[in-house]
Write a structure and sequence with these properties.
The complex is a heterodimer of chains A (about 280) and B (about 450). Chain A is mainly α. Chain A has 14 helices and no strands. In chain A, about 35% of the residues are buried. By secondary structure, chain B is α+β, with helices and mostly antiparallel strands. Chain B has two domains: about 140 residues, D-Maltodextrin-Binding Protein, domain 2; about 230 residues, D-Maltodextrin-Binding Protein, domain 2, CATH 3.40.190. Chains A and B meet through helix 1, helix 7, helix 11 and helix 13 of A and helix 1, helix 3, helix 11 and helix 16 of B.
């Protein structure tokens, strides 16, 4: 309870209150006018930028989540099977890209993706056939590019968390499995993986919400590419444009509420399917 | 250890970890919030001085300028020690960014914080600044004497006039001319073209005789202002709340057919002139730019400052004409100064704008990069340029002639059309599509942007 007391004012100030404000805006007219029902939602849905923006972020989130689940879990399991000194070195190595937070990492990636200055230009020239920066950020590549940026900035932290989760598995269980004749692969897949299932579910819930709220990456790429990437690429950017280019805070709030609903639905689905909060085993 | 103890410990650890993650997330949010207001560095509120519109010059004044206009703001502060000038530099609202929309919306919502004067690189910004919901711009007619205002060219005044009231003054004119490399043209034995057709024929010749050299570029967010505005393509004709967007007009399709073989042949690359790729391929001491239709500020800003083309090579020729049609040209830029209607120090704000547009004209390396919009200063500036050894020949006759040839059938609109060109057409050209095939999608996308901004669209 003392912990919650510290946390509560911030949760209300920066989480609950803005959410209630957004709900109020989303269902009313401009200038605090009357009840508008789903008018704002219908209006944004009919906008030509709505569907592409949501398609983009769902595709991006899908690619990113699959990469996150497969590689984070895989790497954490591999690390956990190694001697302690080796694994701590690798843990640090994996965590390092994540130390470059947010906007800074995007800027580094902009250089990595520009064949003129990238240290990996040979790879881009010969494997992907990319000669120019504009080809790196072609519309079809963007969900993959953003997923890659997000993966490398976030994966390290999650690997450390997963490693921590794996450490909670008692050694006796592992030893018992080994005595029963299970190899390292069998131990990883049949013993460790089921025991950290809830941690994976937790990672997916948080990452899903982060993924659908993508903003900084496409916004910076929009500016760095001098407008080649639309400024409404993601749904969060679309909400931002509605609010600040058109001064329409009500429809912007409607898009935010859409994102909230998608995030909540995904969370409920994952929680019920994985039994994240089920007590006892 | 029993299984129950293990589960209990795991749960406790999970709870602790969740708490740690929560605290970290909170810290990140707080950090993001505290850094978001970073760009406006002025701490004292605008317009605290005692002066009013009819009052004396002095007190406190906040101005927002881009990097290029920073010297003029600093010079004003030095020349006016009685004015406490807060200079805030920002991106100039370039390339269709929403910096100013965002800031003005926020100032309007909080009811304070507006700067007294803004310079914008986007020539269409005053259009929305004068209208709801932004309502930022103050008419300049009562603030700057009519005798001064009449010295701006008529097309320039027209661009700043919204519903019969003038809301801004242009800092510089950005008429499009034909820049060319005199040294290379002589070396290759080519004549400087006067029509688009001659230019295109030469471009095809260059592609076979001197591959790698270019006669222009089409990968900038403003390339349609060079090629389509200049050729009277009706993509932005505003009448009241109605905008005509007709990419099927022959003025548009003919130009696209003319450019397509050049793009395909490599003489007209779809690459922005401001990218490192462009500088690497075509800039530097062994420049590959043979010709380049472009605005007046290319001479200093692009060839000298960005691409480092050596002195004694570049100069400007008359804008290209379409066959035997009268010469019309486009423009790219021509940023305006806008005074805030919320300013409590209008006299000083007006004095600052007068200084920036009619007085500030340093010589030598500090010279203004763009063609001054205020006519008497343009004369002085042209005399400087004519004597500037950087140019291979005197570019001023072409610059001066083009200033009055900007086609007036292309109106400024509240929505940014340049990003639409970039993400519809340029990305298509990079992917190998033809310009002709992209005209219809471009018109369609422009129509959507116009409708979203509240215009009625007709073809």
């Amino acid at each position: 309870m003392p912990f919650i007391l510290l946390y509560l004012p911030f949760l209300i100030g920066f989480g609950v209150a803005p959410m209630i404000y957004a709900l109020d805006l989303a269902f009313t007219n401009e200038n605090g006018g009357g009840w508008n029902g789903f008018g704002n939602f219908a209006h944004t849905f009919e906008d030509y930028r709505f569907l592409p923006a949501f398609e983009h972020i769902l595709l991006y989130t899908g690619i990113w989540l699959v990469a996150l689940i497969v590689f984070v879990t895989g790497l954490a399991l591999l690390l956990h099977g190694r001697a302690n000194r080796v694994s701590s070195g690798f843990r640090f190595l994996f965590y390092l890209p994540g130390a470059l937070a947010g906007a800074a990492s995007v800027l580094v990636w902009l250089f990595m993706l520009d064949p003129a200055v990238s240290p990996f230009s040979f790879l881009m020239h010969h494997v992907f056939g990319i000669q120019l920066f504009v080809q790196s950020i072609a519309p079809g590549h963007l969900p993959f590019v953003f997923a890659m940026i997000a993966f490398w900035t976030g994966a390290g932290g999650w690997i450390v968390v997963m490693y921590g989760a794996l450490n909670t598995i008692p050694r006796e269980l592992e030893e018992a499995a080994l005595i029963d004749g299970a190899g390292p692969v069998m131990v990883a897949l049949r013993l460790k993986l089921p025991l950290i299932r809830r941690w994976i579910a937790y990672m997916v819930i948080l990452s899903f919400a982060t993924g659908t709220q993508l903003f900084v990456e496409p916004q910076l790429v929009n500016e760095a590419s001098l407008g080649l990437v639309p400024d409404t690429w993601s749904s969060n950017q679309f909400a931002y444009q509605l609010a600040f280019r058109y001064g329409d805070f009500n429809t912007a709030a409607a898009v935010s509420v859409d994102l909230l609903v998608i995030g909540l639905l995904a969370a409920v689905l994952i929680v019920t399917r994985t039994g994240l909060f089920r007590r006892g085993d | 250890m029993t299984r129950i103890a293990f589960v209990a410990r795991a749960r406790r650890q999970l709870r602790q970890s969740l708490l740690v993650v929560g605290v970290v997330a909170l810290a990140a949010t707080a950090a993001a919030c505290s850094s978001s207001g970073g760009s406006s560095s002025s701490s004292s509120p605008a317009g605290q001085g005692s002066a009013s519109a009819s009052g004396t010059v002095g007190g406190s004044l906040t101005v927002w300028v881009d990097a290029v206009r920073l010297p003029v703001a600093k010079a004003y502060a030095t020349a006016h020690p009685n004015v406490h000038l807060n200079i805030v530099s920002f991106d100039g609202d370039s390339n269709g960014s929403t910096t100013l929309q965002t800031k003005i919306q926020l100032w309007n919502r909080t009811g304070n914080g507006w700067p007294d004067v803004i310079f914008s690189e986007q020539v269409n910004d005053p259009i929305w600044m004068a209208e709801k919901p932004f309502d930022y711009a103050e008419p300049v007619t009562g603030l700057i004497p009519a005798s001064l205002l009449s010295q701006w060219p008529a097309p320039s005044t027209a661009q700043c006039t919204i519903n019969g009231t003038q809301y801004c003054v242009q800092d510089n004119l950005a008429q499009v001319v034909l820049w060319y490399n005199k040294k290379l043209m002589t070396q290759f034995g080519y004549q400087v073209p006067t029509t688009w057709q001659q230019w295109a024929a030469l471009g095809q010749k260059v592609a076979t005789q001197h591959p790698g050299y270019i006669v222009g570029d089409i990968g900038d967010s403003f390339s349609h202002w060079i090629y389509f505005w200049g050729n009277k393509c009706p993509l932005q004709q505003v009448q009241g709340s109605q905008v005509t967007i007709n990419p099927s007009d022959s003025h548009c399709t003919e130009m696209a057919s003319l450019l397509d073989p050049l793009i395909k042949g490599g003489a007209l690359p779809p690459l922005s002139v401001f990218t490192p790729d462009f500088a690497k391929k075509y800039g530097g001491s062994d420049t590959k730019i043979l010709m380049m239709p472009g605005p007046s500020w290319y001479g200093h800003d692009l060839f000298l400052a960005t691409l480092h083309t050596p002195a004694g090579q570049m100069t400007a020729a008359m804008p290209l004409q379409w066959g035997s049609d009268p010469v019309t040209t486009g423009q790219v830029g021509g940023g305006p100064w806008i005074i805030s209607r919320h300013s409590k120090n209008l006299a000083t704000a007006a004095d600052f704008v007068k200084y920036a547009t009619t007085v500030f004209n340093p010589t030598g390396a500090d010279a203004r990069p763009g063609y001054p919009a205020y006519a008497p200063m343009a004369t002085a500036w042209l005399a400087q340029i004519a004597a500037n050894p950087y140019y291979a020949a005197d570019p001023t006759p072409a610059l001066k002639a083009a200033a009055s040839e900007i086609w007036q059938g292309w109106n400024l609109v509240t929505y940014p059309d340049q990003p639409v060109w970039a993400n519809t057409v340029v990305t298509g050209l990079v992917a190998g599509k033809s310009l002709s095939s992209l005209l219809q999608p471009f018109g369609h996308a422009l129509g959507q942007a116009a409708q979203a901004a509240g215009y009625q669209v007709s073809q």
